[in-house]
């Protein structure tokens, strides 16, 4: 068997999004962060009723329209075209944030630059580089009942994104409870990373080597199984 290559054999963003979608409970109200997390709506399991919220003022949007069928009056917070499900609603931007801040969302799924073992999240700025663009993330991480993260397990140069303590500016304190990465599914509980699933063929030692804090095990660690081909 060929040795597992972390940079080449890790899951794609679509595969991570698919895995995260499987855990969203029926009847949930969910906000998906701009960019990568938006893909989750595409992989909603058949027969499961999930209502997606976007902070620019839509509740109940569906999958992205087919190319050439876009209605550019219907977009999400990331300016991507959306479709509407029966019963969808439109409302003022301020009302949308009142839903967030009022604790009416069951789940927010965001991307990350860093996640700390105590649940701290940094996802809006890398050090002092670039233009700050926090958006609604600071509201979401403390307004939603639960916060999950989808992310590559490592940076582009192979450094850890899961760390003992965040070094980038924080989005929220102690807010993340679960992380879906390109190598593993990890819960955050009691200030620790609890490993739930890892990709087949990847050893515990290799996974720990690219994780910036100790991975703890409670019970069995399952194989992280996803479809091989996802668009």
From TrEMBL:
It comes from the Bacteria. The keyword Transferase applies. Pfam families: CoA_trans. SMART domains: CoA_trans. InterPro entries: 3-oxoacid_CoA-transf_B, CoA_trans_fam_I, NagB/RpiA_transferase-like. PANTHER family: KETOACID-COENZYME A TRANSFERASE, SUCCINYL-COA:3-KETOACID COENZYME A TRANSFERASE SUBUNIT B-RELATED. NCBIfam families: pcaJ_scoB_fam (TIGR02428). This is 3-oxoacid CoA-transferase subunit B. It comes from Sulfitobacter profundi. The lineage of its organism: Bacteria, Pseudomonadati, Pseudomonadota, Alphaproteobacteria, Rhodobacterales.
